[in-house]
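#lab-general

N.A. 3:47 PM
ok so I finally got the sequence cleaned up, no stray characters, all 394 residues accounted for. can someone with queue access submit it? mine expired

B.Y. 3:52 PM
send it over

N.A. 3:53 PM
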Amino acid sequence: MSIYDAVMAIPRSGRTFENFIDTLSTKATGLVEPSELIKAVKAGKKRKDQDYAVASQYLSELKTSPVANHLGLFIDRKREERPYRVGFLGADVNIQGLNVRVEGDEPHNCSSLVGLGEADIAVAGLDELLAVTHNSLNASATKWGMYNYNLKKEHKVRVAGSAMLTRFNDVIGRPVQDMVGFFLIAKQKPDGVNSSYPKDYLQHLEHHKNKVFVKGRYAEKVHKTYPKLNIEPVHDVEDAVNDSQTGDVGLEIVQTGSTLRRKNLVLLGAPLFLSESLYVVDYYKYNKKSDEGLIQLLDMLGPVGYFEEQRLVQFAFWYHALQENLADNWINKPEITDIFCSQQDAIRGLRPYSLKTRYWTPSDSYKRDDAFQFVESSLNQLQDIYTDVINGRL
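B.Y. 4:20 PM
back already:
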């Protein structure tokens, strides 16, 4: 029998790691100096090196730090040169009486550890989840509220809900949830030089077969969802777009838009996918009455459903911050309600499920009427919330 009530996998570096550690520090004891831990891991990015001895020197310098026991050396596979760098290794924490082991891993591996039975719960984005499980779905899930519904059969890895992780946004001066969109991006056209863009850029690309640069780990997932696109896997999407001389575009994750502005790139239309940090759970263990640790941990973490009001509020803040930051660099900007969801999404599997609906299996009729009602009411509610946001009432 495990000495832990639950084992949790989280990214070992990056924004999601930082956001989760901030959240965990308000709920747990045993995590030594969370702000120093975040600082040490963030500095690891600057001290990364292809030479193991050079990279490990930074780890040696941290031996006297109170956060040393939480750190380790790993290979940063997101970088083309695959350097060694310092990241989060793990921590034993206590969350309201529960003994929880929190372990760091590659972002896309966290949900895989749940599937392998090596972790009970993970923090993962829909993008990372789909990168390793898209073949387990009957149809594409472009929003996380579609994921569980579209599983081919009973599958132990399921989305429990949004983790509602936030980060301070300088543009609007407040914390904003870590939502991202997979947007088409392109080079900004010079003033007066054929400066118009197609209204439906996706349809334009499907017809004219311009290259669409995509990070390698997402290429198969994007091809499955949009089979008519001319997908080309690359390491750095933004650089590939800037280097292209033939009007090619990219499909890139965008959270705040600051990097796009700095590189003189533009956003095209609505996102093809939406993602955010989610709690992903081993539902076999969750359903076992003898496994109370995972049930209690989820109750304490409080995953949030797709249509819940607090998520609508954060979605409004995210959209507002993105459009304020990008301004004219967002070409053919859609309305906020066009991005959030549609009745067509409900037909494709967007459902108001929660942990209480864990026993259901996908069918065309399950909660379909409820889904249509939730879509209609949430769009009206979201529009009202967004109006309050832009008028400074929220």
